[in-house]
Amino acid sequence: MAPTVSSYRILNRCVLATAAWTAAALFAATSNATELWYDGFTSTTDGGDYVDGSPLGGQSGGSGSFFTGPWVASDYPELAANTKSYATGLSRPGLTSPATGGSASREYLADCCTESRTSRMMASPWGGFTNPDATFYVSYLVDFGGGDVNDPHHRVFEMHEGGFDDATQRNLMLGVSTFAGLGSELALNVRDSTTDTLINQPFSEGVNITELGFQGTHLVVMKFELSNSGDDVISAFLDPVGTVEPTPSASVSVGEFLADRMSAMVQFSYNTGPDGPAFFDEMRVGTEFADVAINTVAYVPEPASLALLGLCGVALGVGRRRSTKV
User: Fold this and answer.
1) Are 289 and 137 in contact (CB under 8 A)?
2) To which H or E segment does residue 174 belong?
3) 322 in a domain, yes or no?
4) Would you say residue 262 lies in a domain?
5) Is the whole-model pTM more than 0.85?
6) InterPro entries given for it (predicted)?
7) What stretch of H or E contains 84?
8) HEC string for 216-254
């Protein structure tokens, strides 16, 4: 069963579309560089590689040189089966590249409990115990989902090294998780492999799971500056506008960062009540910020006026998930 969305979130996305009409004349973004990877999670029904409603593990999709092999299911069967591909994808106003349809998510949860994690192996020279002494960027559309603000575990994006063990091999998390140490607000958490310590940096926007649960689709850009002669720096940007790299929302510097796999749509839900699933879509990897920066419109977190609300009143009758069916 595909998840559903509240009319508030649909209404808010309609407001974003209204904002886009005004902002489109003010912003322009182009990218001439070559991407290292693109995956729109397009389903087979739309000519893509992913089977609607099937576990993500074992499926192959996307194109480029950054990843190798299919999606790899977690070592734990209960985690592996819950991450699935869906035919309905994410979108938002102001994208310079149209979303292709499809996404990674899990089924809606009415009560406790479920877990999900599936990874993609990074190809040489990016993955493994090597340091490529280079910089790469990753961007993706994400709906962080929603749930009990007192017990959220919506990590959404992780990186591991050598396996799936959280205690010793999970070297990066992005999301919200009181259980895993991210805290109650959106944060970036990175392991320094030289000291085996975790460094946690909340986003400057200061948003928690309740706010994220109503906001719908965001664009996240991550920057990995990997050096053989100095510290490695990992940064994250929430809803950046344009192709000029702005100040990051969060940034962590470590002596050495190691990863051989990227885990998408990571969500551990132990809430006693309904828990809205996260969605992950439109993943890009490149060597320049402009390779992956596909947004031209500033994010509007709440309805700006009753006039805008009036333009979107028809959305109140819609109960189906997604910002735009693509």
Assistant:
1) yes
2) strand 170-177
3) no
4) yes
5) no
6) Ice-binding_C
7) strand 84-86
8) CEEEEEEEEECCCCCCEEEEEEECCCCCCCCCCCEEEEE
